[in-house]
Each structure stands twice: as C-alpha cells, then as structure tokens.
Amino acid sequence: MIDGINLEKNTKMKANSDFLSTNFAVPVVMNKLDLSSPERFFNRELSWLDFNYRVLEEANNIKIPLLERIRFLSISGTNLDEFYSVRVAGWRQLLKSDSQRKSEDGKKSLDQLRLIDKKCRKLISYQSDVNRLLMRAIENENIAVLANEQLTKHDLGFLKNYFFSNVFAVLSPLAIDPAHPFPFIPNSGLALALELEKEKDGSILRALLPVPSQINRFIKLPSDLKNHRYLLLDNLLLMNIKNLFPGFKLNGYCTFSVLRDSDIEVEEEADDLVRGFEVALKRRRTGEVVRLKVSKNAPVELRSLIMSSLDVNQYEVIEVDGIIGLSDLKELANVPRKDLLWAPFSPRIPERVLDHDGDIFKSIKQKDMLLHHPYETFETVINLLKQAAADPNVVAIKQTLYRTSNESPIVDALCLAAENGKSVTALVELKARFDEEANIRQARKLENAGAHVIYGFTKYKTHAKISTVVRRESKKLVTYTHFGTGNYHPITAKFYTDLSFFTCDSSLGKDATKVFNYIGGYATPEHLENLSISPVNLKAKLLYMINQEIVNSQAGKPGQIWAKMNSIIDPEIIDSLYRASKHGVKISLVIRGICGVRPGIKGLSENIRVKSIVGRFLEHSRIVCFGNGNLLPSQKAKVFISSADWMGRNLDWRVETLVEIKNPTVKAQVVSQIMAANLADTSQSWVLSGEGDYIRNVNLDGVMPFDCHKFFMENPSLSGRGSAGAGDVPKLVNIN
Question: Which candidate in 373, 463, 489, 709 is catalytic?
C-alpha cells in the first residue's frame, strides 16, 4: 500500500478497447487552472519521487519473480542516492546563494527542500518495510541473510579464514582523538562508527571502520546446493573487533553512509577540457554532504560525533531501520535460482540481416531498417561498425559516444578501423554524469589507436546518438547512417527499450554529417532536410508541429498527438499541449518518469491523458506522432524518433536529434505496433490523474491484461498478433 494504492487490488476505470480512442481513461477534474497559474504544472522533484515509488512498488509486486523484486528494491535505492547527490544538492546551493529562483510550479528553494524531505522520509521508510518483507520471502526459498547468533561452528571457522584471507588487509580502522581527527568519508561511503572500551583501564575510544566497497557486501557461506546462506559484511567486521582493536571491547556501534554534492562545473575557458574534468571529478569526491543516513537507535554520542564532524544538522540526517546501502542488494539478485528470476530471453536477429548472411550494408541498402531493442539484438549496431572496420571500401566513420560499457565493442571497432587506416572521428561526451571517468579512458584509448577525438561544446552536452559510415560504391561515396534513441551501450541495450534506425538515404546522411561538423567545428547546420537538432531548431519544430494540430482541429479535421519519452517538464512545450487540448486535439502521452503535465483538468487539459509503464524493461525510447489532419494511424501522419526528452536541458542545453521517419514500412512499425502496444498496455501501466495520483492496472471487466513487454518478446514477427499468453493488442492496424 502506498499513497492509497494497493498492489493486491486492481483499480478499475472505464476504458475503451480501441487504442485509437481511449485505452486509459483520465477522470476530468473540475478546476479553474489556466495558462497563468503555476499550479498547472506538477512539481518536477515530487514527480521524480513518484516515479521511484513506482519502481519500489515493483519490489512489492507478488506477480514478479522474487529475485527480480530484490533487484527493483536495489534500483530504487540507487535512484534515490543519485537524486540526493544531484537534484537535492542543486536546491541546497540555490538556498545558500539566496537565489530567488522558483520551480515551475512556484516553489522556492526552502519550500522545495521541505517537500522533498517529507516525501523522501516516507519513501525510505517504505523501502525498509519492503526490504524486511523480501528478506522473509527469500528465507522461505532457502535463501537467508543470517544474524550472528544463527552461525554454526563450521560457519565461524569458515568466516575466520575468510576474514584474514579476503578482508583484513583491505581494512583501515581509524581512531578518533585529538591526534587522529575525523577522517574523510567519500561520496557514497559506508562506515561503522564504534565506541570501544579499553579492557585494562576502562577508558573510551571512538573509532571508524570504513566498509570497503571492493568486497562483496554479502558473504556466501558454505551450504548444500539447495540452500544459499549469506552474512552481511558489516557483521563480519563487528565479529572481528578484537582483531582490529586488540585490547578493546565493543560497547556500541552504528552504521552510517554519506552522500555528497556530485555536480560538476568546468570553466568554459579551460585550455584542456580533459584535465579540467579530471580536476572536477576530484572535487566531486569531496563535495559537501547533502545527506547522512544513520542506523536506527545509534548511540547518542556516536551520532553526535558523526554529525558535528560532517557538519550536518538534524534535518539532513535520516534514521534507517534496516540495511543501509540498498544498492548492494543487487548481489542477492544474482543468487543462482533460475526459478526466482524472469525466464531467459534472447533478442532476435532481424530476418533481413539473416537473409543477407549477416551483411549489414546489404540489409540497409535493400531499404531503411528499424530495430526495437531489446527485442531485436543490439549486436546489429555493433556489427555495422565491425564490418565497417574490416571493409576495404569504407573510408570514414563518425560516431557519438555519450555512455558506453567499460569494455566497449563499439570503441574496439572504432580503434580497429583507425588502425586499418580509415578516417575515424569519435565525439566523446565528457559531461555524461557519473560516466566522466570512463569516457576519459575511452577517449585516450581511441586517440592511441589514431582516431580523431573531439569533445564537443563546453556549454552543451552532446546527447545525440548518431553513427555514420562512408563507403565507396560504384565510384561514388554512400553514407550509411544510424540514429538511435538510446546509448551505444551493449549492456543497457539488453534491458532498455530503444529504437535503432538504419538508412542510406542521402539526405539523412548529409544531415548527420552537418551535425558532426557543428559539434567539431561550431558550424551551425543550415538547410537540414529530415533532421531537427537542439539547441538549434528541435524545440521550434515540436512547437510548430503541435500548432499544426491546433490548426487542423480548428479546420474541423482530427487533431491527434501521440508521444512517448522518459520525461516532460519544459513549460513552453507543456503550455503548447494545453492550448492544443483546449482546441480539441487528442493527446496521449506515455511518460515513464518525470511528468509536469497535469492531465484531465476541465478547460485546460481534458483532452490529455498520461500513463507510465514500469516493468521488466526500462522504457527509454522517444517517439512522437502527429496526426497531420488524419485519424491515426495513417501514412499521412508525421512520425519522429528522438534522443531528446521534453525537458529544458534537452531542448536548450544539449545537442539532440529529432528524425522524421518517412519510409512507409518503418512508419507502420512505429505507429501501428510500438506505439499501439504501449498505449494498449494495462499490465504494467500507471495512469496519472489531474490530482497527481498514479492509479495502477486500468483493466476492462473480463478482459485479460495486456503486457506490451511480453507481447514483443513473444512475437517473432512484429506485424503479427500476440500469443494468448501475452494478450492481444486491441486492433493492431497495418498502415502499409
């Protein structure tokens, strides 16, 4: 149960099975909001916390395999830590600077922080409740995290050897006294605070024992194949206090963790951008403390010592009843119990690629190709670059890299291409938050291989996902282009839903080349044919297309907008949608995370409906479809895929792409299959009301819930219908 929502009961609302009409009903709220009221927007920070609640609810969802529920709990913990390090830290800085800046819904810094704190404390309490529930549940499955008193003699012997063989040398016990000041605890650092008594004279020593992040938090104990037994590393450390502090006994202890401001600023005039980022990364580790978590019932003296040493007040301290560091629970999600995990799923290889014996160039040459990840393998993207690296007819490759894996096959292919004498240009974005160090390493690897590495703008992040391969064919150069909605990251591509669009259309090839020239040489692109980019004209294009739907509606034609993305908070875009709604344009939004749109408000947004899908895969693709004066789906509709969410940072402060899809087959796949299935989903959907409540499972009486993830997994051909197990997409329409 959370904010009135009970997972055990499905809230039923009136809905229409025709996905062209209303798959998720939004109750119209009588209100007098207008385009001048700040209350027309939902609060960004609270909306994000609502999203993390939905993630946490998956951990409490008995329909999900048990170990996957633990993974969701871990994700909710990681998400919240990042939220504090970035968003809360930002509002704290505004408060300290006495800034008069307000949130879009009219909240000042202090009010904002108070609202965040209130909701976060409830969320953290709920995380602890879910954690206790899950620990009991896994114990029933013979997976146990033991207390010290549950250990056998055999366990104790194993742990003694484990401690001295795998832990002891890594530890740094630190006394705290006038000669030993309170040590620095890094961002995300976890430590035990100890109160020790000297056995000889009873004198008191206070000390810290940092919990090393290099060692698994859960220690696997010897057991038979049917049982999985673990001990928390913290407990092992407490068991060995006498080995760490000889001559002392333990009087009291607590566990605590620190989160610091993780924002990075780099001087725009920095001569060496890489060096500037390396300095900034060091500053991040020593940033101001924005949150202190302390275990419940901590000794008063220890708690006071920690607070005063870290310079935090009582409002910045959160007591936790249970494990601190929920992100470490991901270790338990890897227990070898396939029956407690989602059934294995292998992405499909596109049939056209198989027809051409794996030749990606021939596959694209036949006609434009759209892949839907993770249902269709990301290996196709990697293989395009691998084949390009080895192909003697390929003369040049250009590639953006925002986030990628540490051992990246993308980077390896680019290095091989450079070593094979091809012109390779790699745009490496150093400002990809929390991936800066990894990107610096990749940039140096590329440079060592002979690639041209550029870092883009100091003012803007380059978030666009573009790759071009220039190939000599029949005495002319042909540009093969890939546009994506997600990162060039083969690991996240296994559980993020994203789109990959491949084309050798010359106009899109020219557009992509102009974007690379813009990033590398500051040459603002002119006369883009099928591509819009931010910060140049992407936002203007969206506003123009929304206005065209208003014009169509005023002319008595159908006005329709479908859009899917991670977040929408840009006030100008939202106000444009409100105006469209007031003129009768029907707007359906699938927004996974942050949503500033307040739907279903009479006179403002009664024609707008919003839902969020949270399930096995992370919905990440960005799609927008405009009816263009026709009922969707239609070949006359305007269909786009994008790297950009509708947020100020994406539209004004990043280099992003919005690609118009003109190929009829690809357009049909986007509209009639991908968007249709997302709109039809009831199994994983949360519907947003005008009051800000997310209501789960909008199902029709007697109708089997439709699961869009399951549908795409079970359909080898996306033009077909789902199996009985997945449910049927209502009225999938073929617009070829």
Answer: 463
